[in-house]
Design goal:
The complex is a heterodimer of chains A (296) and B (249). Chain A is built from 13 helices and no strands. With 296 residues, chain A is mainly alpha-helical. In chain A, α1 packs across α2 and α11 packs across α12. Chain A is elongated, with a radius of gyration of 26 Å. Chain B has a 5-stranded antiparallel β-sheet. Chain B has a two-stranded antiparallel ribbon with strand order 4-5. In chain B, a hairpin with a 4-residue loop joins β2 and β3. Chain B has 5 helices and 7 strands. The two termini of chain B are 34 Å apart. Chain B is an alpha+beta fold and 249 residues long. The chains are: A mainly alpha (296), B alpha+beta (249). At the A-B interface, α1, α2, α5, α6 and α7 of A face α1, β7 and α5 of B.
Chain lengths: 296, 249
Amino acid sequence: MNTDNEHALAAWVEWKKQCAYDLCADDTKAYLQEFAAVRFQKWLETCACSLRVTPRQHKGMPGRDIWHLLETRMTARKDLRGKRYKDWLFRRVQLSKDAPLDVIQGGATLILREAVRDLLRLEAAPGWVLSLSQPLVDSRDEGFTLEDILAGGVNPADQAALREYEAFAGKHACDVFKDLTQPERMAVLARKLGLSVACEEVELAAGCKKSTLSKLYRGFAGKVGRLLQSRHSGEDVESLLTLALMTMDRVAEEVVLWARGESACARLFAASANAKPVLTHARAAIVAEGRGGIVH
Amino acid sequence: MNGKLPRLRIGRAEPWQRERLARWLAEWELEQDLPIESRVIGGNKRPVDKTLPVAPLEAEPAVTPGQVRLLSPEIPVAANRPVYLAVLSNQGANAFLVAPYSSFAEPAFPGEFVTGREAPPLSVLCAWNAGAVDARVLAKSWLVDELSAHELDEALSVLRHVRDGASLSPELERRSGPPLWHPADPRETYRSEAAALMRALADDEGAQGRGNPGSGPLIYPTGSGQLPLAAEPRAKYETRPAPDDGESA
């Protein structure tokens, strides 16, 4: 190990042993501040455009304060026990053949990243507050907005109307299902079974990576929306969104029935055995105040 | 197949739900945009370096319900990010029911709630993601803190709410995440990734010899007098009154 790296590792070890930044020697403090500041500024500059935060807002932030972000991000309580994240950092060294300094600093970088995320979230508001009509980051191509995914419930007095929607949904679902490609069916199946598209079994069964699967699922949602808009032109957005959700739900049921006969899907059913339920209501309506939402 | 759609009266999300969802989505977007540069670790162990200061796991108090623990990075799911867990209850003789804390400051959906703790790593608990974990796995963790009786009760209440449909106090509901409805909601991605993490933890070592503790039904305190009897009607999942109707769910 060269001298610089020895000094750097010594700084981290001193910080760990002293248990408090303020008890460290001046050169240790200087090194840790520099470590944090370099990464902090780089993240700001990299993300300035997408985050709508100008680097100038934090350019003058003292290194001590930036380092403090790291220390507070993972501190569970103000005693030795609450700072066990430091043991986590150093324990990682035993799990890698990389240089101890690289492993420690790699872990510290991951922690600092979350701390910076917290800072930007708090300090960029209210300018950072998400607009109701702004496309969501995961669905920029399809244009889903915050308005689209907010929801309420259907009035129970509307059961008769709901049954008509179910009937429409069933008919539309048959047509949609017939046109789905194999990867699209896998994306729908994974979602229905509560599996992550990053799950290896899902990627293997579909023959594509998680990013493609996510895109395929959103494309499926968009496809349903466009079909309904063409078949029920002139209807209000709320009604179309309700029908779209129900149709997607019925398509998912068809996919499950199909998948039970596919040997490639057997592992997915097995993997889903421990999938956890969340209070989702596939047949609930979505409020879209004046915007097209899922229906373009 | 084409035809006029009947009118449906649709409820609206509460303002506090909209605000909470907007804050969560903002944090999610930041998470997607901030680059990750560190290389992941794992797999190749080196001899123990006694010069590096690490609190020995063997010296830690035994795992018991009511604790908050930090997993050692030798557990694969905790190798590249500190994972804090709340130990909720015993799960048979050799496992515990645990729930992870979120890395986000806002709860994403029902089943996640703001704990009231100021410490960032313990501010949101993901009770929905509770799972049974082998005691041998949990032993590879450091004790960080203790839950108060009230905190433990809240966690179990939220778990019962999402798993069994048990009622939740209005105060806890206001501290929980907004409902997840839309199939294209980004929270679905978050949910499935978080569920995969706990699934991996439940399968870790538990499947090697003792059987997978995560494969059986979860055992957790059901609370006295909170469960409806078999003959009592339950509210349907699909409907709830619109807020301006003044009806209760």
